[in-house]
Design brief:
The N and C termini lie far apart (about 95 Å). The chain has 6 domains: about 200 residues, Roll (Ubiquitin-like (UB roll)); about 200 residues, no CATH class; about 40 residues, no CATH class; about 180 residues, no CATH class; about 80 residues; about 80 residues, no CATH class. Strands 6-5-7-1-4-9-12 form a 7-stranded mixed beta sheet, covered by helices on one side. The chain has a 7-stranded mixed beta sheet with strand order 23-24-27-26-25-28-29, sandwiched between helices. A 5-stranded antiparallel beta sheet has the order 18-22-21-20-19. A hairpin with a 7-residue loop joins strand 20 and strand 21. Helix 9 packs across helix 11, helix 16 packs antiparallel against helix 17 and helix 17 runs antiparallel to helix 18. The chain is about 30% helix and about 20% strand. It is an alpha+beta fold. It is built from 27 helices and 33 strands. Keywords: Metal-binding, Zinc, Zinc-finger. This is SWIM-type domain-containing protein. InterPro entries: MULE_transposase_dom, PB1_dom, Transposase_MuDR, Znf_PMZ, Znf_SWIM.
Length: about 900
């Protein structure tokens, strides 16, 4: 077994594939190296590592491997999901062979990778690869483990941030081992190849792409940043943007907390935290690095000087708006550059020595301001800068009459910013901290850190954490608004994401020909409806699935209260197959009717359809209006849920617990007398439950009376998987939610394609199992011939089988689509194959047809649309109008007329106003 999810990759390159007589492939020539990977390894990291190892061009590099037991078909690795899937396939193996191909010539400069990096891949040996047979007859040989220290890049060495990446120090190297393949080995001296370990300072990319970066992240490590720095530097200098205090004449009476570079900023700017990433194969959690250097914030500094201000200044002193680097270092110390293991309390405590007194020097006014801000947080007081420019800075405590003062100015001779006057003591008794009001930007930056760690943090939890860490009390509204702004910075604007829907529909149809994507907006340019159905889904439904669709709806769990409508088919293995979905502004009969009309035009089938939905939604009329020859049934899952809710005593006989069992038995009864039998049992337990069952039309939910496709064996919630997914991504904008839905559908198709490739039976596994049960039952039955097509089968009763009409008097064959035991007994006597009389929808071929088409990857929004292109290709689409729920609407209090109350009189003393129990009269 693979230990702790690790897998040793035998990476082979330089050879060629040869086809053997049996169709299997062998790889001849070349060399091989061994590398450890695990579930945390990113595909981009592995690809870059192999490109350097084999001196191959990064963009042309291709990685392929064989599935276990299949040496005829090569599988390509191209995404993180592919890599994790390969590890899963080789879960029982220690090693896996991968084959690396590409054009020669690795160019680190083209990839924006600095030539000097601290760690590398150390290969203990170069393996001269001889012809290794790939035929199934050759069992894989265990590899001798020779532990050799191998410096590799840790998983997630390239932090991807939605806007900017700032890294201050190199991540620590990890070690692994090299496995020696069972081939001819020629030992040589260890060779060292540089690894892509980011150890230099990183600067932000052009801010023009930031609005789109917030909508979707990219897994490409080279598009997210460029690397600069001095190769000769012993250690990189952390680069953090400085917020310059603006001068505002209206700020005289304000007392605002002097905070921009927060403890959380400093602690977590190196911390890789969890954040959602959506790729082609589903939503995943990726490591990202805190963004402290947003160019957008810098570029708009002059425009929004007051909103960016962390230290309101009372005097009208001209402030030069600049942005410069700041090194987190006091007196040459790097104590503020803390690791993840340093508690926040210790870090804040270390800021107390950031300001030491008169004579202390700083490289610039920016460094002085940063140190002063941290010093104020650590000592828990609020100050105001009276003079604040590039040459001087004077501040005092905001508390009236407090003695704390500080003054520093630029000294040209020393080329430093020096503290010249300072009164360290406070006479306010900490009153200034009580009146501290954090700025919006500081609060948002703190909340962003919390949301990266836990995306679904509640406002009260964040408020509690801020009070514990900083001693600042915030009300619910402040924190809630801060959460909204933080999520917009992390994930993009939910409102602006609607503008991308027209572009999204265009690209969806362009990359998936035959697919349908329709967007409707009203006269006010507000979103109303979106319908999506992929060609892969339509093809699979029409060629491999029964004409049966489940209709359901659920909330998109967003601030605009959109509703997801979905149509789901059932494949031959009783799995759910999404056919189409729509997003509408509100769930109404008109929107359901529109969805069904789009569904009809997309499916374009002539055979009668069967639709199943929740009875409470009342979709029967709309279904029969759009699909004239259709059948409509009620979902057994929802009927059962409503049945349980309506169970009220008294209960008799077998008690309440028997009611759901008898309800399902009545639904599954093939004959009417069976239905009556179980409903009578319900009646004996509860007459109210019986009345509730009988008021539902039996022709819409019972096997005995329903004329459409058999469906009521499905007793689970069809939309459950979508509800879980939307719960996980409920905070994301609408485009990213749609991408998550598409990724789930793609992952489902890919999984079924892979699973079915290993099946060998003629039917799907679930149907094969049921058929085998019937085959066992048929062994003890006696068959009497009547005609060539009619047969009598004797067991406890006599059943007549007609093999021409695929019918048996027990009615099970017709209801389930699989031959019953009576029919199988006839086949055994007449030498017929039982598989020739099974419904074609349950065959392995039909299942593979269902999943034969794949959904093509949609282009990444970040890669495909920059800011200028977005202005040309996007249409101004507004979010839907939201109605406040009735529970939140203000209700007018209706005064009721005074009710005459009966006067209370005591029966003991005969006086009014009290009763006998409270009577205190002495008689």
């Amino acid at each position: 077994m693979m230990a702790r999810g690790k897998l040793i990759l035998i990476c082979q390159s330089g050879g060629e594939f040869v086809t053997n007589d049996d169709g299997s492939l062998s790889y001849n020539g070349g060399e091989a190296h061994a590398v450890n990977i695990n579930h945390e390894t990113f595909f981009d990291d592995l690809k870059l590592k192999l490109a350097e190892m084999w001196n191959l061009e990064y963009q042309s590099l291709s990685i392929k491997y064989f599935l276990p037991g299949n040496r005829k078909t090569l599988i390509t690795l191209s995404t993180d999901k592919d890599l994790k899937r390969m590890i899963g396939f080789h879960g029982d193996s220690v090693t896996a062979d991968v084959f690396v191909m590409g054009r020669e010539g690795f160019d680190s400069h083209a990839l924006n990778i600095h030539a000097c990096r601290e760690s590398g891949i150390k290969l203990a040996e170069t393996v001269n690869h001889i012809a290794v047979s790939m035929t199934p007859a050759v069992a894989p040989q265990p590899f001798a483990m020779a532990p050799v220290s191998l410096g590799v890049m840790p998983s997630g060495a390239f932090p991807i941030d939605p806007v900017t990446v700032v890294t201050d120090v190199a991540p620590p190297d990890t070690t692994t081992t090299v496995a020696h393949a069972a081939v001819t080995v020629s030992p040589v001296a260890p060779a060292t190849f540089p690894v892509s370990t980011v150890s230099d300072s990183l600067t932000a990319v052009d801010a023009t792409a930031q609005s789109l970066n917030r909508i979707s992240t990219t897994a490409n490590p080279f598009a997210a940043f460029t690397i600069t720095g001095d190769p000769s530097a012993a250690a990189p200098t952390p680069t953090v943007p400085v917020v310059i205090a603006a001068i505002d004449a209206t700020a005289h009476g304000s007392a605002i907390l002097d905070i921009t570079s927060t403890p959380a900023d400093t602690v977590k700017k190196r911390r890789r935290t969890a954040s959602w990433k959506f790729g082609a194969n589903g939503p995943t959690i990726v490591s990202v690095t805190d963004d402290l250097g947003e160019k957008k914030r810098t570029a708009s500094r002059k425009k929004n000087s007051r909103s960016q201000n962390t230290v309101p200044v009372a005097d009208n002193v001209e402030q030069q708006q600049e942005n410069g680097p700041w090194k987190d270092d006091f007196n040459g110390s790097s104590s503020l550059v803390a690791s993840d293991d340093v508690p926040l309390e210790k870090l804040v405590a270390s800021w107390k020595d950031g300001i030491t007194g008169v004579g202390q020097e700083f490289k610039s006014v920016y460094e002085f301001r940063e140190a002063l801000q941290k010093y104020a947080i650590a000592h828990r007081f609020v100050y105001r800068l009276k003079k604040n420019d590039t040459n001087r800075a004077s501040g005092r405590c905001v508390a009236e009459g407090c003695s704390w003062r500080i003054h520093a100015s630029w000294v040209p001779a020393a080329q430093s910013f020096r503290i010249k006057k300072m009164t360290k003591s406070h006479t306010c008794g900490g009153q200034s901290w009580k009146s501290a009001h954090p700025t919006k930007n500081w609060l948002v930056s703190i909340i962003k850190d919390r949301l990266r760690d836990t995306p679904h943090h509640k406002p009260k939890d964040i408020a509690k954490c801020i009070f514990q860490d900083f001693g600042i009390e915030l009300n619910y509204t402040q924190v809630w608004r801060g959460i909204e702004d933080a999520r917009e910075q992390l994930q993009g604007s939910y409102k602006e994401a609607y503008n991308l829907l027209p572009w999204f529909c265009e690209k969806l149809v362009e990359t998936n020909p035959g697919s349908v994507a329709k967007l409707l907006i009203n006269d006010d340019k507000r979103f109303e409806r979106l319908f999506v159905s992929f060609h892969a889904s339509l093809h699979g439904f029409q060629n491999g699935c029964r004409p049966l669709l489940f209709l359901d709806a659920t909330s998109l769990k967003s601030k605009y209260q959109e509703i997801l409508l979905i149509a789901t088919a059932v494949d031959g293995n009783e799995g759910f197959f999404p056919v189409a979905f729509a997003i509408v502004d509100v769930e109404t009969d008109d929107n359901w009717l529109w969805f069904l009309e789009q569904l009809k035009s997309a499916i374009s089938t002539l055979q009668p359809m069967t639709f199943v939905s929740d009875r409470e939604k009342g979709l029967k009329k709309s279904v029969l209006e759009v699909f004239e020859n259709a059948h409509h049934g009620y979902s057994i899952y929802y009927l059962m849920e409503n049945f349980k809710k309506n169970l009220k005593g008294p209960f008799h006989g077998d008690g309440r617990g028997s009611l759901p069992i008898n309800f399902l038995a009545a639904a599954h009864a093939i004959r009417l007398d069976g239905f009556k039998k179980f409903t009578e049992q319900i009646k004996r337990v509860s007459s109210k439950a019986y009345n509730w069952v009988m008021q539902i039309e039996p022709e819409c939910w019972t096997t005995a009376s329903f004329e459409g496709e058999h469906y009521n064996q499905i007793t689970v919630d069809v939309i459950h998987a979508y509800i879980n997914l939307l719960e996980e991504v409920r905070e994301l904008p609408i485009i990213q939610k749609i991408e998550a839905l598409i990724c789930m559908i793609m992952e489902s198709i890919n999984t079924c394609q892979t699973d079915s490739s290993t099946w060998s039976s003629q039917l799907t596994p679930s149907k094969e199992e049921k058929l085998q049960d019937e085959i066992i039952k048929a062994r003890s039955l006696k068959v009497l011939f009547s005609t060539d097509t009619l047969f009598e089968v004797h067991d406890d009763s006599i059943n007549v089988v007609n093999i021409d009409s695929w019918d048996c008097s027990c009615l099970q064959w017709k209801a389930t689509g699989l031959p019953c035991c009576h029919a199988i007994a006839v086949f055994n006597c007449t030498g017929r194959s039982v598989y020739d009389y099974c419904s074609r929808y349950f065959t392995l071929n039909s299942f593979r047809l269902t999943y034969s088409e794949s959904i093509n990857h949609l282009p990444s929004i970040i890669k495909s649309l920059d800011k200028e292109e977005a202005a040309l290709h996007t249409l101004n689409v507004l979010p839907p109008c939201t109605l406040r729920p009735l529970s939140q609407q203000k209700r007018k209090m209706v005064k009721t007329e005074d009710v005459m109350r009966r006067a209370v009189s005591c029966t003991r003393c005969k006086l009014a106003g009290h009763n006998k129990a409270t009577c205190k009269a002495t008689l």
